[in-house]
Amino acid sequence: MRRVHVVVQGEVQGVGYRYTMRLVARRAGVVGWVRNRRDGSVEAEIEGDSDRVDEVLAWMAEGPPGSRVDTATVEDATPAGGSGFEVLPTA
């Protein structure tokens, strides 16, 4: 089990990034959350089998059509368990 904390910067707000990511994450079978940050970036935590987490990370590096990802900073986090993948309010 692997959990990561990710911050994505670029043109990632107002382009459907969070809601598309929720679909991608649910299809991959990972749990966690995603939210916008006030600085214009998107932040997420993803947990699941390592290959499934890598699948979502690969999508995050590209984003949905209309987005532009400049950087994606990934840090390991302590697995927390849980169920589902949610879009949280802006932090």
Automatic annotation (TrEMBL):
This is acylphosphatase. Residues 64-91 are annotated as: Disordered. The active site is at 18, 36. The lineage of its organism: Bacteria, Bacillati, Actinomycetota, Actinomycetes, Micrococcales. It comes from Microbacterium salsuginis. Residues 3-89 form the Acylphosphatase-like domain. Keywords: Hydrolase. It catalyses: an acyl phosphate + H2O = a carboxylate + phosphate + H(+). Its EC number is 3.6.1.7.
